[in-house]
Amino acid sequence: MSALAVTKLVLQIILVVLSLLLTLLILMHKGKGGGLSDMFGGGLTQNAGSSGVAEKNLNRWTVIIALVWVAIVIALGLFAKFGIA
């Protein structure tokens, strides 16, 4: 197995893990009202929401992980386009 094949496999595994983590982070965000989050009970927990600092950190982590996810998707697309591994 070549080094590029190992790299591609590692990127695919990281992509799956980041996809699951990104889904969980997005679901942890506080609903802004009027959307699906209120339909499924998000409106009941408005007073028990997280503090401003925790929400900012959650936003930061979500954006960082989303950017890494996009970079890995692009890298795997380039692997596929050029027939590497």
Automatic annotation (TrEMBL):
> How is this protein positioned relative to the membrane?
Multi-pass membrane protein
Which GO cellular component terms are attached?
Answer: plasma membrane
For this protein, the parts annotated as crossing the membrane are: 9-29, 61-80
- What InterPro entries does this protein's entry cite? SecG (IPR004692)
Drop me one GO molecular function for this one: protein-transporting ATPase activity
Where is this chain primarily localised? membrane
Localisation: Cell membrane; Membrane
Q: Which family does it belong to?
A: Belongs to the SecG family.
Query: Its function?
Result: Involved in protein export. Participates in an early event of protein translocation.
Entry protein name: Protein-export membrane protein SecG
